[in-house]
Amino acid sequence: MMNEFLQYLQYEKNYSSHTVLSYNTDLIQFCNFLNVTPDEFDPNSVNSQQIQQWILSLMSVDLSARTLSRKISTLKSFWHFLLSRRLSKHNPTLKIILPKTKKPIPAFFKENEMTAALDNSMKPDSFEYTRNRLILETFYLTGIRLSELLNIQDKDIDHSAGTIRVIGKRNKERIIPIDKSLINDIERYITLRNESIDIFEPNLFVRNNGKKMYPKMLYNIVHENMSEVSSLHKRSPHVLRHTFATSLLNGGADINAVKELLGHSSLSATQVYTHTSFEELYNIYKHAHPRAK
User: Fold this and answer.
1) Structural domain tally of the chain?
2) Are residues 163 and 241 in the same domain?
3) Are residues 160 and 245 in the same domain?
4) Which member of 71, 131, 193, 241 is catalytic?
5) Does 145 qualify as catalytic in the annotation?
6) Are the C-beta atoms of 24 and 75 separated by less than 8 Å?
7) Is 123 found in the same domain as 69?
8) What is the pLDDT of residue 37?
9) Where is the active site (predicted)?
10) Residue 275: which pLDDT band, with cuts at 50, 70 and 90?
11) 238, 249 in Cβ contact below 8 A?
12) Is residue 273 flagged as an active site residue?
C-alpha cells in the first residue's frame, strides 16, 4: 500500500521525484521505528501513541522543527490516502499537531555582487564561459527554479515576443517576460553553441558533449561563480531566485505579480520575501531620514 501511495503522489498529484523520495524515506523510517518492513506494515495496528513516540525519538536527535513538521505531514497525508481508498479503518494522526516553524528570511545577493558576477569584461569568449554566464543571468532575471532552467528548450524562447516558457511544479506552465538584453545574450549563446557542438539535445543549456546538463552541474556552476563575488554561506540557484524576488519587491513590484512570476500556488509562499524587503526599506530610512540618525 505504500507503493500505491507513492504512485498516487507521483502520477496523480504530479509531485517531483525528489518530493516522492522524501515521502518514501519518511515512511521507511517510521516502519523501522515500528520494527516492521513496508510489506508487513498494517495501518490498522498503529495508534497515536506510537506516532507520538516516534516523534519524540526524532526530537531526541535534534531535528529542526521544519524537518519534523514535514515527517509528520507525510504520515498525515499517508493516512488521508489510506482512508480515501478504504485501506484503513481509523486515522491515528488526527490528534498529532504539527510543530510551529519559523520561516527563515531568505538570503539574497546584493546588486553589486550580481553586477560583478555578470561582468564579462576581460573574460574568454568560449562556449563554456558564455553558457555559464547566461545560466547566472537567466536565473537572476527570471527567478526560475533549477529544475525549470534545466528543462528549457530552444523552442520555449519566443524571441519576438520576449518571453520564456517554463514548466514548473506539478507540470504547471507559465510564461515569463524577459528583456532585450537577455534575448540578445541567448541568441549569442545559441550561435556559439551551434558552432561549437555538432550534435546536441533540444535543451537550451547543454554540456560540452551536447548532452543535457544535470542538477549538480548547474548547482556547481552557480556556487563557484558566486563564491568569487559573495561571502554568503549559501550560494545556490535558489538564492538567485530569492534575489530576483527581493529585487522586484524592493523596486515596488506588486506582490501578486511576483507570485505569478515565481509560479507560487499561494501568496503566503511569496510573502516571506516581504520581510527582507521591509528590512531593506528600514535600512534606507535609517540612513536617509534626518530624524532616524
Assistant:
1) 2
2) yes
3) yes
4) 241
5) yes
6) no
7) no
8) 94
9) 145, 169, 238, 241, 264, 273 (o-(3'-phospho-dna)-tyrosine intermediate)
10) low
11) no
12) yes
For the chain, report the end-to-end CA distance as a whole number of angstroms.
Answer: 64
Report which listed range, 59-63, 222-226, 277-281, is most confident.
222-226
pLDDT digits (tens, 9 = 90+) for 15-57: 988 999 999 999 999 999 999 999 999 999 999 889 988 987 8
User: Which secondary-structure segment (H or E) carries 257?
Assistant: helix 255-262
Q: Tell me whether residue 117 is in a domain.
A: yes
Q: Which of 145, 193, 235, 242 is catalytic?
A: 145
End-of-domain residue from the set 84, 103, 137: 84
**Alpha-carbon gap, residue 70 to 78, rounded angstroms:** 12
Tell me, yes or no, if 291 is annotated catalytic.
no
Active site residue 169: yes
Residue 15 structural domain: 2-84
Q: Which of 169, 207, 212, 275 is catalytic?
A: 169
C-alpha grid cell for residue 102? Answer: 519559523
CA 127, CA 223: separation in Å to the nearest integer?
19
Residue 92 lies in a domain: no
Shared-domain flag, residues 129 and 249: yes
